[in-house]
Amino acid sequence: MMLHIRGKPALMLASILIYRISHTQCLTRPPANDASTNCSGVTENLSAAHATIRSGESADAKGNVFFLHIPRTAGRTYYFCFLKLATPPSRRCEKSYDVLRLNSSLADCGLLGSHDDLSVLRFLPHDTAVVTQLRNPVDRILSAYEFIVEVAVRKWLRTKPGKKPKAKRTSTRDVWPWSYLVPWMEEDMTRRRARPGTEGSPGADPYDNSLYMPLAQFVEEPMVQELLHNGASLQVVGATNYTHWEDAHAVRACVGGGGLGRAQEQLQEAAIARLETFAHVGLMEDLDGSILSLAASVGLKLDGPAWKAGLDAFEKREDGRVEQVKPDGDYLHPAQLGKAHQACVARARQKAVRRKAESMRMLALPGGGHVEFSKASRAALDPALIQRIRELNAVDEALWQHGKLLHAKQLQEHKQEGRLASVMAGKNTREGNAGARERRGSDELKRRLQAHEQHSRRKHTRSRAKSSH
Ligand SMILES: *[C@@H]1O[C@H](CO)[C@@H](O)[C@H](O)[C@H]1NC(C)=O
Ligand SMILES: *[C@@H]1O[C@H](CO)[C@@H](O)[C@H](O)[C@H]1NC(C)=O
Ligand SMILES: *[C@@H]1O[C@H](CO)[C@@H](O)[C@H](O)[C@H]1NC(C)=O
Ligand SMILES: *[C@@H]1O[C@H](CO)[C@@H](O)[C@H](O)[C@H]1NC(C)=O
């Protein structure tokens, strides 16, 4: 079974022109200046933008899916190793991580995944279901920092003779936000390399050493404010630095600087309201449960078919449109979706570990020895720095907390409706007394969720009162 894509032709995006949005070209504008921005308009603008774009609340009977990929949330596991595998080549939109390629995609494509924010929905059919995955914002920022360092170091790996870049693969350096953050980090490293040992702390602390920008400095940089802090919330409302919404820069200018002031609260409300309309919200902290919930939300079964990469299934015509020249059947995976997913995840993890080790070996400390990111080094981070990161991402913290509730609720609903059983065993257990029993169980869960919500709202009000003195 594929992604419940029935009835009308999927994304009617096909069309005439090749459309390659280069965000840096189309939307470059000077960053708004806090002092000159009237921040009381943020809510109005956010709700105005909300009025014109909407997300589908369920993939059922609709079929088009947009995976709103918040960077560093295990999107690979979600998208490449699940949604994409579950979708035959003819239904996949052209890869769009570096630039959006909707107009050059197949007419019938119904699965898009990218780092685009919600504003991309203006190019998609009205009933497109949005699915996303959230993560503890402190972990997300740490992971982004480590990733940026890792990729920046590859600069020296890359220039090793005999290393050719692989064709057809999208380079991380072309993918927002790494397209800005990696060259920036590279520059910093190059500078330090030219004068070894003169900057930063000696020693092998991976978050504070002389080889690259320390974490404590990184999180305070305007570049990181623009591209990472509260990035999940900004992406969910469609106001990132990579947006198709022209007025988004003013929103970012108003919510920068951390904490929960009025503008941040408005963003938080808008993000939570928007999240509620998504067809599925997963949590990186419960990856397995999230994949099951995702499958149930978009109507996939673990014992259903999977399809391999279908790169040579397509040919580009003169006018830029893509034509399928080999049938989907040629790409059927020998394994069922669940097995194919697991194999894909295992392969991707191995590769990530290998690449990370390979990169970090390039970083030799002046006095000898190497730095390495590890669970232990994370655990040893200064609690005050962690607290600072949390504060700079206060809106995302609230969104993540809400995401946890939504995830639990969605899982429970899928269970209650028999969809989880159907995902796992291919059979439907909706009927009978069991259903009523589960419904009672779910009423209980709902009560608990409401109690929890009230509790966290009270807590939130208290901490807000504290943070505004
Ligand atoms: C996005 O951020 C980068 C880096 O700060 C900046 O150069 C660029 O102009 C920004 N783009 C938009 C659309 O604001
Ligand atoms: C700021 O915007 C609000 C609402 O958009 C408006 O009522 C107010 O007059 C504006 N203030 C300034 C100083 O421009
Ligand atoms: C709101 O949108 C208007 C134009 O639609 C823009 O001029 C203004 O800067 C925006 N204000 C904020 C705070 O986003
Ligand atoms: C696709 O092409 C049409 C014009 O043919 C254009 O209006 C639209 O903005 C383009 N972009 C996307 C993302 O579909």
TrEMBL record:
<keyword id="KW-0472">Membrane</keyword>
<keyword id="KW-0808">Transferase</keyword>
<keyword id="KW-0732">Signal</keyword>
<feature type="compositionally biased region" description="Basic and acidic residues">
    <location>
        <begin position="436"/>
        <end position="454"/>
    </location>
</feature>
<keyword id="KW-1133">Transmembrane helix</keyword>
<dbReference type="InterPro" id="IPR010635">
    <property type="entry name" value="Heparan_SO4-6-sulfoTrfase"/>
</dbReference>
<feature type="region of interest" description="Disordered">
    <location>
        <begin position="416"/>
        <end position="469"/>
    </location>
</feature>
<protein>
    <recommendedName>
        <fullName>Sulfotransferase</fullName>
    </recommendedName>
</protein>
<dbReference type="GO" id="GO:0016020">
    <property type="term" value="C:membrane"/>
</dbReference>
<feature type="signal peptide">
    <location>
        <begin position="1"/>
        <end position="26"/>
    </location>
</feature>
<dbReference type="InterPro" id="IPR027417">
    <property type="entry name" value="P-loop_NTPase"/>
</dbReference>
<keyword id="KW-0812">Transmembrane</keyword>
<keyword id="KW-0325">Glycoprotein</keyword>
<dbReference type="GO" id="GO:0017095">
    <property type="term" value="F:heparan sulfate 6-sulfotransferase activity"/>
</dbReference>
<feature type="compositionally biased region" description="Basic residues">
    <location>
        <begin position="455"/>
        <end position="469"/>
    </location>
</feature>
